[in-house]
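User: Just a sanity check before I run the rest of the batch. Below are the structure tokens for the first item. I only need the designed sequence back.
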């Protein structure tokens, strides 16, 4: 399976298990994220640690996740960016609007802090 989805108490972790997030699988990711949100989840962590390549459709899926979490008054955290994907995020200036951590554990800590505010 291209995505591993794990409910973790106050958030859902979605790990992309392929090295590419592009037009072939980004629509499926977007659908999964919408389904998770429709099931009542407002906090999503997207782990891209296996992804070495991302195109504009992959970025769109990331932005959809961010928007649906914001609309639900939750939080979206992107983690595990590999160098090429991180460069794309920076070139697109998305690092200025997205919460980004190095690991899923850091994302969990960040969400725990936000929850306690």
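Assistant: Here's the designed sequence for the first item:
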């Amino acid at each position: 399976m291209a995505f591993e989805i794990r409910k973790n108490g106050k958030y859902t972790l979605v790990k992309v298990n392929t090295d590419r997030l592009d037009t072939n699988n980004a629509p499926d990711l977007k659908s999964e994220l919408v389904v998770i949100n429709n099931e009542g989840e407002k906090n999503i962590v997207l782990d891209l640690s296996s992804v070495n390549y991302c195109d504009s459709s992959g970025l769109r899926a990331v932005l959809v996740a961010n928007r649906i979490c914001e609309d639900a008054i939750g939080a979206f955290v992107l983690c595990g960016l590999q160098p090429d994907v991180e460069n794309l995020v920076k070139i697109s200036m998305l690092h200025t609007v997205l919460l980004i951590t190095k690991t899923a554990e850091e994302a969990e800590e960040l969400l725990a802090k936000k929850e306690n505010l």
